[in-house]
Amino acid sequence: MATSGLCVWLHKKIVDPLIQILRRGAEPKLLAFSAALGITLGLFPICGVTVFLCGLAIALLGSHCHAATVMLANFVATPIELSLVVPFLRFGEFISGGSHFPLTSDAFRKVLTGKASNEVLLSIAHALLGWLIASPFIMGILYLIFLPCFKILVHKFSVAPSSPNKSLLSQSEVMLKVRDA
What we know:
The chain has helices at residues 2-23, 28-42, 50-61, 67-96, 105-113, 117-157, 171-180. The protein has 181 residues and is mainly alpha-helical. It has one domain (9-158). The protein is elongated and about 60 Å long. The protein starts with a helix and ends with a helix. The model is unreliable at 166-170 and 172-178 (pLDDT under 50). Keywords: Membrane, Transmembrane, Transmembrane helix. This is DUF2062 domain-containing protein. It comes from Cannabis sativa (Hemp). The chain crosses the membrane at residues 30-61, 67-89, 120-146.
């Protein structure tokens, strides 16, 4: 019962929106870039900030990214984000040569009581550094993985041509052809 509910939820929240995006006929390169961008920004190690980062990226990039794909990929990246906070923290500590932040119940208690503020801020900085260094590689690898996938998916699901050179006829052009026939 629980797995069928999960399948329905996944279909409704991820599969259906993805199929709608694909049916609109966007370029595979644009979709691959946008999905890679959304996931990369979605892995930002401060929870709750990723939506704003994606919104900012969409605003800055404009037509160079597909907004719906960026946001869908950001949504998909949320569980991955939570699982990568500690690896980003450790990577940042390694890169900077910083002290090892203890992830113990005592450290957690200090965080909750506000007694570890400098240590916590430093650990956040280390996690951000880890993400900042890893993110170009993550984005590049994801783009290389997504590009052939989106080429196949756009070809399979698109009802509109995927090239701007092969545009659909407008309604007025269709009406002219009907009148001429």
